[in-house]
Structure formats: structure tokens, C-alpha cells
Design goal:
It is found in: Cell membrane. By secondary structure, the chain is α+β, with helices and mostly antiparallel strands. Helix content is 33%, strand content 27%. A five-stranded mixed β-sheet has the order 3-2-1-6-11, sandwiched between helices. Strands 14-13-12-17-18 form a five-stranded mixed β-sheet, sandwiched between helices. Bound molecules: adenosine-5'-triphosphate (ATP) and magnesium ion. Adenosine-5'-triphosphate (ATP) binds next to helix 6 and helix 7.
Length: 452
């Protein structure tokens, strides 16, 4: 059952940091504050400068606090799927209480018993998602508390990630002056919040087109089947425009916003003047030439995704593809995706007032996911957070000394080893959509309505 209360999502993106505070009441989610601040210290979705990222997060948090009129203490942060590993895991414990009635402690303990597998020192448990409990051989139980039994078993999925990435994330959030409520695996939150029940059952894929990276997540039978990150996004489109037209990145970004079209056949025939480095007079560029530059990069991203989805037969999923993310706002992205993938593609635009923008889909999903965690999920999280101690100690079935979730804050053994690529300074605000006298007007007006 969904929990009532305030849940704050924090999306630490390469281009911008997004914060969303929502009040959840009886399964309904009301957004009460949202912010979008320029990102810093993040490359390819990974924190590479704790101080810079913490300062940017602080700004985003205080903007959201101002809008929401409440102070934010806890945040639910999204973790990209970089180097994520998923393992089916099981645990078993004897129910030790005299009454043999299964309690919260038993649930924590059975999860803990599943976490004791040996792991290399560079990896850490991010989360554990219980799938099924078995009480004295009776299977398919979702919440065993209150039941009587002698033997409690559990099966679930264990998500682990690189220790350095997790450490940097925790440290950064701490420095920003807030506490981590949950680390949420982004593709899990996105597929739950953006796809409907039927799409999750029969299967569909989400493509999140960000500034520095593009994330893919495919789901079927309510379970994540595949997720991957491609280190290219909308900022690479801007860089391409800048390089090809020999113009500044600032101007390239504004050309993309105002004249950009990702599907060449839809590009207008008009032209515009561009100040080119090394030329005294501005150079005339046609919309279709700009569209060719844009579509080359996006097609390149889509081609890589197609190869991966094809190989796993995930393009056959009946739900097709749902696109989100700031880079998906570009007119023509859906048409280009349809051409490349050859399956139905739709753009997902959140429905809540003030955030009708595909770039906010991820942060909304984080708040929603946090509010929908069940009691059993929460107990599993408590068990996971005590896991750092347990890996160095014999397992005892006693309740952990502290019931408040605790995070490991050991120094990182090594700096992030992710390839660091140059990311242009990104615009901090949701851009104003200017009217443009071309075929892209229709689409642009639609996007303009997203920012009410
Ligand atoms: N109206 C628009 N038209 C075209 N591109 C846009 C528009 N609005 C935003 N973008 C692009 O979207 C990208 C940012 O998207 P988003 O906010 O989803 O990224 P992010 O979450 O910060 O980054 P990442 O997910 O890569 O870490 C930038 O490249 C930006 O230029
Ligand atoms: Mg993003």
C-alpha cells in the first residue's frame, strides 16, 4: 500500500538538477514544489566533483523549498544504471519467537540472511527488492508478517553497484545538507511510473534522452529485462552544431532550441543567419541543413539502442517505445525514432501542472516510487543499510543496534574511473519556447504548453 506523506525526488542530471516535492495522500500524488537548477560536478551522469555538485543541489533544494513552502530534510535520489548488477538471491531463517508469529524483525533478518554472499570490495548493495516469501513451504506470499510459521524463506533481486559511485552520491547529498531517504535505481522508478500496468505486463521500453547520456530500460512481466546507458545526449547535439557550423556552443544551443528539428523530412525550407567564427559576415544556414546535423547524432544514439534491443528481441514488445528527457523535446525525435526502430513510439509528457515537460518525468518517478514503497520494501531497505557491518561480521539474527537507516561513509578508495568527456555548460532553466516561422511551429507550440 502506498504511504502518505511528503516525498522529495532528486534527479542529479548532467545538464540540470531537478527537485520535486509531492504530497502523497491515499495513493494520490500532488506536486507542491519543483525546481530545475544548472548542474555542476556531474559528467556522464556520475558525480565527479562532490563540492560543485553539492552546491548545485543546495541551490535546487532551496528553490524547491521556496516553491513548496516546506523545508526539505529527506531526499530520494535516482541512481543511474551505470555498471549495475542484478542477481536473484534467496534467504532462509528459523522463526525464533515463542509465538512463532512472523514479525518485522523476522522480515529484516531473512533479507539480511540473503545479503551475506561474498562480494568484491569495489561493489556494494544498493537495494534489495523482495519478490516472494515462503512460510513453511507455502509460496507466493508478499507480506508474511502476522502469519505463523517455523521456517521463513524469501526470494528477491539484489542490486549492486560500484562503491565509488555510491560513496560520491551519498557524500554529495550529505554535503548539500539533506539526508538520503532512499537511493532509487532510476530505470526501476521510470518504468513503474511512466508505463501503465498493461505496458509493464506485455512489455515496453523507455528511452530517457538527457543532456550527457541516454538511458534505456525495457520491462516485461512487470520486471526489468534490460537497462543500458549510452554516453551521448542532447548536449552532444549542441556540440555537433557548434563544431559543424563553427559557432559558439551558446549560439548552437539557441539554434537547436529555436530552429532544431530531428527528422529531416519535416525540416522547413527557411534559412537563418549564423555568426561564424573566422567570418566577418554572418553565414546563411537552412533549417534542413541544421536538421541533418541534429538527426545524425540522434540517429547514431538510436542505432546503438536498436542493436541492443534487437539482439534481445525487445523491439518485439507490444508496448513499443516511450521517450522522455529534455533532449526528447526536440521536434521530430518521435518520427526519427519510429523510422529507426520500426515500432510504435510516443513522447511521454507528465500531466501535472507546472511540470508538463518530458525532462521532469524522471524526478516525478522518484517521488512516486518512494511513496509507493511498501512496509516490506522499507524493512528490506533497513536490512540493506545495515549490510555494510554484516559483511565484516558473522551473521546474527538480532535486530540491528540502530533502527534509524544508516549509510556507510567510508572514503572512496579511488576516484571515479568513468570516462570524462567535456560537457558544455547547460542552460539552467526550462527554456522559453520562441515562436518560429516554420513547419516546426506545431510541435513547438505543443511543447510551449508544457511549461505552464
Ligand atoms: N526545448 C528544447 N529543445 C531541444 N532540446 C532541449 C530542450 N529543452 C532541453 N533540451 C535539451 O535537453 C538536454 C537536457 O535534458 P535533461 O534535463 O533530461 O538532462 P539531464 O537529466 O540533466 O542529463 P542526463 O540525464 O544526461 O544526466 C540538454 O541537452 C538540452 O539542450
Ligand atoms: Mg536525466
Amino acid at each position: 500500500m502506498a504511504r502518505d506523506g511528503f516525498f522529495t525526488g532528486l534527479d542529479i542530471g548532467t545538464s540540470s538538477i531537478k527537485v520535486l516535492v509531492a504530497e502523497h495522500i491515499n495513493g494520490e500524488m500532488n506536486v507542491i514544489g519543483v525546481s530545475n537548477a544548472k548542474s555542476a560536478g556531474v559528467k556522464d551522469g556520475i558525480i565527479v566533483d562532490i563540492e560543485a555538485a553539492a552546491t548545485a543541489i543546495k541551490t535546487a533544494i532551496s528553490q524547491a523549498e521556496e516553491k513548496a513552502g516546506i523545508s526539505i530534510g529527506l531526499v530520494n535520489v535516482g541512481l543511474p544504471a551505470n555498471l549495475l548488477q542484478i542477481e536473484p538471491t534467496q534467504g532462509m531463517i528459523p522463526v525464533t519467537s515463542d509465538s512463532k508469529e512472523i514479525t518485522d524483525e523476522d522480515v529484516e533478518n531473512v533479507v539480511r540472511s540473503a545479503l551475506t554472499k561474498s562480494m568484491t570490495p569495489d561493489r556494494e548493495v544498493i537495494t534489495f527488492i523482495p519478490e516472494e516469501f515462503v512460510v513453511d513451504g507455502f509460496q507466493g506470499i508478499r507480506d508474511p508478517r502476522g502469519m505463523m510459521g517455523i521456517r521463513l524463506e524469501m526470494r528477491g533481486l539484489l542490486y549492486t553497484g560500484p562503491r565509488t559511485i555510491l560513496h560520491n552520491l551519498r557524500k554529495t547529498v550529505e554535503r548539500a545538507g539533506v539526508q538520503l531517504e532512499n537511493v532509487i535505481i532510476s530505470p526501476l522508478a521510470m518504468t513503474k511510473s511512466i508505463l501503465n500496468e498493461g505496458e509493464r505486463e506485455f512489455g515496453a521500453s523507455i528511452i530517457d534522452m538527457g543532456g550527457g547520456q541516454t538511458t534505456v530500460a525495457s520491462v516485461k512481466g512487470q520486471e526489468l529485462q534490460f537497462t543500458n546507458i549510452y554516453q551521448e545526449g542532447g548536449d552532444y547535439v549542441t556540440k555537433d552544431i557548434s563544431k559543424v557550423l563553427k559557432t559558439s556552443q551558446k549560439l548552437a544551443e539557441s539554434l537547436k532550441f529555436n530552429y532544431g528539428e530531428a527528422y529531416v523530412p519535416s525540416a522547413g525550407s527557411e534559412s537563418f543567419q549564423v555568426e561564424v567564427i573566422g567570418e566577418i559576415e554572418p553565414v546563411e544556414i537552412t533549417e534542413s541543413y541544421l536538421a541533418e546535423i541534429i538527426s545524425a547524432r540522434i540517429r547514431h544514439i538510436f542505432d546503438q539502442i536498436k542493436r541492443d534491443l534487437d539482439r534481445r528481441h525487445l523491439l518485439e514488445l507490444p508496448g513499443g517505445i516511450v521517450i522522455i528527457g529534455g533532449a526528447a523535446i526536440l521536434p521530430g525525435v518521435v518520427e526519427l525514432a519510429q523510422e529507426v526502430f520500426g515500432v510504435p513510439v510516443k513522447l511521454y509528457v507528465p500531466n501535472q501542472i507546472g511540470i508538463r515537460n518530458p525532462a521532469f518525468a524522471h524526478v516525478i518517478s522518484l517521488s512516486e516510487y518512494a511513496g509507493n514503497l511498501t512496509d516490506v520494501d522499507m524493512l528490506a531497505q533497513i536490512a540493506v543499510r545495515g549490510d555494510e557491518q554484516l559483511r565484516h561480521q558473522p551473521v546474527s539474527f538480532e535486530r540491528p543496534a540502530q533502527s534509524v537507516p544508516r549509510f556507510n561513509s567510508q572514503p572512496a578508495e579511488q576516484p571515479a574511473e568513468e570516462p570524462i568527456q567535456e560537457v558544455p555548460a547547460a542552460s539552467s532553466d526550462v527554456p522559453n519556447q520562441e515562436a518560429k516561422p516554420s513547419i516546426t511551429d506545431r510541435m513547438r507550440n505543443l511543447i510551449g504548453n508544457m511549461f505552464d
